[in-house]
Amino acid sequence: MKILVAGAGAVGGYFGGRLAEKGEDVTFLVREGRRNQLAGAGLSVQSVHGDFKLMPTTIVAGEYTAPYDVIILSVKAYHLEAAMESIEPYVGRETMILPLLNGMSHIDALVDRFGENNVIGGLCFVESTLTSQGYVNQTSPIHDLVFGERTGEKTARILKLEEAFSGTKANFILAENIVQEMWHKYLFITTLSGVTSLFRSPVGPIRENETGLSSINNTLEETAAIMRKLGAPIARDIEVKQLEKLNSMGYEMKSSLQRDMEKELAVEADHLYGFLLDKAKELNIETPMLQIIYANLKIYES
């Protein structure tokens, strides 16, 4: 399959690099500066699962405008509009767009732009960063990319994609219910990112503090209440399971949103939290914890 990876940063560089390492037909859609960097130094990945380096195939937006079989979209939400413009020349009638963004509102944006058939579901779990030298540094035992048809069907095209992804030195997983998986991750990221960015702390000290622990619980409960009212297919006991997961995480674990704040980078305040608060207002749900988290992020942005 012809695979286009939109972005060669921490996420796209890692999963796209693993596919290229395996020998799949991978092209990276990047900006001119990143293209020059990759042309000079190559794509270098330093990973707990094994380092590798390769000379990737790259294009910038507008070059070689033929459709790809699948486009992996690994940008931040605040770059989504620009990314959609960049990938449009490469989207054909049968192209699968596989987004790895957190949250859910990007699905509507992609469907509005490209149509229901072109957009499949996706998410990833990986701890990776792009260094100032342009290397991808991947540090987590977990390096999963999860995908599937949003209908839950095992279509011929999704099975073909599963075959292309198989045998890669990262975990590419075909989900039984990708939409549920995406909502579950949204709930988890909302909580972990919200409390760690609010308290400016790894998760360990927050768990040990009485107010910190109640903040974790309240964020889980408020977010799950909104999702259930929206009809999201989340599990009945998801709050309990995710609290267990948060309690089992490494003491020094930080969210990527918190790390972005420490680097004075942009954050996805509106995409993750503004969306939930808008829905909560429509549904008349009280969300004091989410409002505090959102205010913290908006004050940071200002």
Automatic annotation (TrEMBL):
UniProt keyword annotations, A-Z: NADP, Oxidoreductase, Pantothenate biosynthesis
Catalysis: reaction(s): (R)-pantoate + NADP(+) = 2-dehydropantoate + NADPH + H(+)
Pathway(s) it belongs to: Cofactor biosynthesis; (R)-pantothenate biosynthesis; (R)-pantoate from 3-methyl-2-oxobutanoate: step 2/2
Known EC number: 1.1.1.169
Domain Ketopantoate reductase C-terminal: 177-300
Any GO BP: pantothenate biosynthetic process
GO CC terms: cytoplasm
Residues in Ketopantoate reductase N-terminal domain copies: 3-150
Domain of life: Bacteria
Entry-linked Pfam families: ApbA (PF02558), ApbA_C (PF08546)
Gene3D superfamilies assigned to the protein according to its UniProt record, in alphabetical order: N-(1-d-carboxylethyl)-l-norvaline Dehydrogenase, domain 2, NAD(P)-binding Rossmann-like Domain
Gene Ontology MF terms in the entry: 2-dehydropantoate 2-reductase activity
Function: Catalyzes the NADPH-dependent reduction of ketopantoate into pantoic acid.
Stated family: Belongs to the ketopantoate reductase family.
NCBIfam families to which the protein is assigned, alphabetical: apbA_panE
Record-given protein name: 2-dehydropantoate 2-reductase
